[in-house]
Write a structure and sequence with these properties.
Layout: E1 10-16, H1 23-33, E2 37-41, E3 54-55, E4 58-59, H2 69-82, H3 105-119, H4 124-129, E5 141-147, H5 157-164, E6 167-170, H6 175-183, E7 188-189, E8 194-195, H7 201-214, H8 229-235, H9 263-282
Parallel strand pairs: 1-5, 1-6, 2-5
Antiparallel strand pairs: 3-4, 7-8
Helix pairs in contact: 1-9, 3-9
Length: 286
C-alpha cells in the first residue's frame, strides 16, 4: 500500500514577464493585501558571475543558462512541504529599489478590504487562511515567485511551471517602456557586490533574450503583439484579457500597442483573479 502524500503547506504563485514589466511591484502589492504571504525571487538563483555566459562581449544575466533551476526547484519543493522561506536561500533582491508605488493608497486599501471580506467566517477564503482550532499555524501560506523567465515549453522551465507552480500570471510590456524603466535603474545587488547595466545592455542582451524565450506565447512569435489565447489556455497561464488575442498569427502590426497596462488595473485584476484561483484549488476544481 502506497503511503499518502504529505499535505502541502503553501500555494505557489508565479509572476513572470520581461525585465521591468512590473513583476516585483505586483508581487509586493499582493503580499501586502493577502495574509501569510512571502516572496521568493528568481533572481536569487543566479549562478556566480564567473559561471555566467557572455554575449557580444557582455555578461549575460538574462538567459536560462545564468540561472540554477535545480536550486530553484529545491526551494519551491521546500516551500510546498514546509510553508516557510527556504533557509538555504540568501536573498539579495529585496535590497534593490523599484521606485515609488504606482498604485494609490486608496486602491490598495480597497483591495485589502475585499480580501478581508473574502477571509471572513463563512466566506471562501476563511478555510484557506484562518487557523484551525487545533493548530497555531494557518492551514496554508502563500508564496509569490517573481522572475523574468518562469514559463517555457521545454525542461527545465516546463517542470517548474507544470509541476511546482499552482497559479501562473504573465505580465506584458512594450520594448520602449521596458527599455526606459530598466535604463532608469541604478543597478542590482548581486552575490558578488553590485551590477550596473553597461550602455546598450537592453538592446544587446535583455530584449533579444526575452523575445527569443517568449515568442511561443505571442501571436506570430512577436513579443510586441498580443498573447496567444490558445497557448495560455493550454499552459494555464493567466494574463489580463486586454493583452490577449486569439491564436496563431493573429492580426495587428505589433509595436507594443496595448501591452503597457496601468499597474492599478493589473493589481485589481490580479487580486480578484487570485482569490478565484485559490478557491478553485481549495475545492479541487483544478
Amino acid at each position: 500500500m502506497m503511503a499518502e502524500e504529505a499535505p502541502r503547506k503553501a500555494i505557489i504563485v508565479g509572476i513572470s514577464g520581461a525585465s521591468s514589466s512590473g513583476k516585483t511591484t505586483l508581487a509586493r502589492l499582493l503580499r501586502d493585501v493577502f495574509p501569510h504571504t512571502f516572496i521568493l525571487h528568481e533572481d536569487d538563483f543566479y549562478r556566480p558571475e564567473t559561471e555566467l555566459p557572455s554575449r557580444d562581449g557582455l555578461l549575460d544575466w538574462d538567459c536560462a543558462e545564468a540561472l540554477n533551476f535545480d536550486d530553484m526547484a529545491r526551494a519551491l519543493e521546500h516551500i510546498r512541504a514546509e510553508g516557510t522561506f527556504p533557509p538555504f536561500v540568501d536573498s539579495k533582491e529585496d535590497q534593490n529599489t523599484i521606485g515609488q508605488c504606482p498604485v494609490p493608497p486608496s486602491a490598495i486599501e480597497a483591495a485589502r478590504s475585499r480580501v478581508e471580506a473574502w477571509l471572513s467566517p463563512g466566506q471562501p477564503g476563511h478555510a484557506l487562511f484562518s487557523p484551525s482550532s487545533s493548530a497555531q499555524e494557518p492551514p496554508l501560506r502563500l508564496c509569490i515567485l517573481d522572475g523574468f523567465l518562469l514559463y517555457g515549453p521545454d525542461p527545465p522551465l516546463s517542470r517548474v511551471a507544470d509541476e511546482l507552480l499552482d497559479v501562473k500570471f504573465l505580465l506584458t510590456v512594450s520594448r520602449s517602456r521596458a527599455t526606459a524603466r530598466r535604463e532608469a535603474r541604478d543597478g542590482y545587488v548581486t552575490l558578488e557586490g553590485f551590477w550596473a547595466d553597461p550602455p546598450g545592455y537592453v538592446d544587446k542582451i535583455v530584449w533579444p533574450n526575452y523575445a527569443a524565450s517568449h515568442a511561443w506565447l505571442f501571436e506570430g512569435g512577436d513579443v510586441e503583439r498580443r498573447l496567444r489565447a490558445d497557448v495560455l489556455a493550454e499552459k494555464d497561464i493567466l494574463a489580463l484579457p486586454q493583452v490577449v488575442g486569439g491564436g496563431g498569427n493573429g492580426d495587428g502590426d505589433g509595436g507594443g500597442e496595448g501591452l503597457d497596462v496601468d499597474m492599478r488595473v493589473m493589481f485589481e485584476w490580479a487580486v480578484d483573479t487570485l482569490m478565484r484561483k485559490l478557491e478553485e484549488i481549495a475545492t479541487g476544481k483544478r
